[in-house]
Amino acid sequence: MKQIKTEDAVGQILCHDITQIVRGVIKDAKFRKGHVITEEDIPVLLSLGKENIYVWENDDTKLHENDAAEILRRLCQGAGLEPTAVKEGKIELKAAYDGVIHIDEDKLNAVNEIDEICIATVSNHIPVRRGKSVAGMRVIPLVIDKSKMDAVQIIAGSEPLIKIMPYKKFNVGLIVTGSEIFHKRVEDTFTPVIEAKLKNFGLMINERRLSDDSKEMTLSHINELINLGMDMIICTGGMSVDPDDRTPAAIRDSGADVVTYGVPVLPGAMFMLAYYKRDDISIPIMGLPGCVMYCSKTVFDMVLPRVVAGEIIERNQLRHLGVGGLL
User: Fold this and answer.
1) Nearest one of 149, 151, 190 to 66, comparing CA atoms
2) Alpha-carbon gap, residue 246 to 226, rounded angstroms
3) Residue 114 CB-half CA count within 13 A
């Protein structure tokens, strides 16, 4: 591109959008990239403060901001994402359906390390609704060296950097532990909380069992729910270090592979996650501490959407929840 005086621009091709801003009235492009400037446009451009203007001239070593944004879009857009039209050099990606966003943070950060590149997203591993804007991308200048965009493509690789994992259908088994509930000395107030949280993802409690504080009864219920074909098992209560809190031992003795017992999240530090292998299926078993019953947001709210999206969560992912884990 080259810079010329606006009065001399008649017949030239505009190489970038020119925005008109009138406070409280409009903020939009008055002239679009590719517009052929006419005599009538000159006073309008001058009224927008454009004494000089950039017009397009071919240069095989450069890319226009719109073309560069399209490259970034192609590298980022994975399953469940829909792009907006490019506007003033920027493209946004929006969720095509409800689900959990997954971002390859290492590669995205490496791409953003390249000077003049900008990709911004929402936080990783959070639930998003259909239509929500989850990412925006552009380059900083009006034109950028092709060599930088070549480097971006090498770093990003062949797999998209961002995708949405849709929610799946689960048959959910719930085990409510505690001798006080089992013997009906107090009302079960845990079940309604779990029902409400599952409902947000279109799920319900398909099978419910009550257990006293014995490991044997809780283990028996876990095995029963597995045999009944439950796809997810939630155990409430009995998760602390008290001598009569034996839910973690029951989950271990079920034969499930324990991912972690304890996470750096408050409330919810005594959370447990394990997976029981049935054929080729991994059944998540979660042990929920009592705080889930009375705190509006706990570790369960961070983990449940990812479980419902079918993610197999690894230990290091849970151990890295500490930053942002004070809820």
Assistant:
1) 149
2) 19
3) 24
What's the confidence (pLDDT) of residue 243? 57
Find the helix packing angle between 146-156 and 105-112, rounded to 10°: 170
CB atoms within 10 A of CB 217: 19
Distance in angstroms (rounded) separating the CA atoms of residues 308 and 201: 8
The angle subtended at Cα 221 by Cα 216 and Cα 225, nearest 5°, is 150
Helices (H), the chain: 41-47, 65-76, 105-112, 146-156, 179-182, 190-199, 215-227, 247-253, 291-294, 299-308, 315-319
Question: CATH code for 172-319?
Answer: 3.40.980.10
Domain locations in the chain? 2-55, 62-165, 172-319
Least confident of 113-117, 138-142, 197-201, 227-231: 138-142
With contact defined as beta carbons under 8 Å apart, do 1 and 57 qualify? Answer: yes
Bridge partners, residue 172, by sequence: 205, 232
Which pLDDT score, from 0 to 100, does residue 58 have?
65
Start-to-end CA span in the chain (Å): 51
Backbone angles phi, psi at 71, to 5 degrees: -65, -45
| Look-up of token digits 């009550």 | 210
pTM summary value: 0.83
201 vs 193: CA distance, rounded Å:
14
CATH code of the region 62-165: 3.90.1170.30
- From residue 186, alpha-carbon distances to 176, 183, 203, 287 in Å are 13, 8, 26, 21
Residue 23 vs residue 107, higher pLDDT: 107
- Quick one: tokens of 316? 């290091």
Distance, in Å, from the CA atom of 308 to the CA atom of 276, rounded to the nearest integer, reads 16
CA-based diameter of the chain, in Å? 90
Nearest to 304 by CA among 289, 322, 321, 286: 286
Of 154, 151, 160, 166, the residue nearest 104 (C-alpha): 160
Identify the CATH number of the domain defined by range 2-55. Answer: 3.90.105.10
Query: What pLDDT, on the 0 to 100 scale, is given for residue 77?
Result: 98
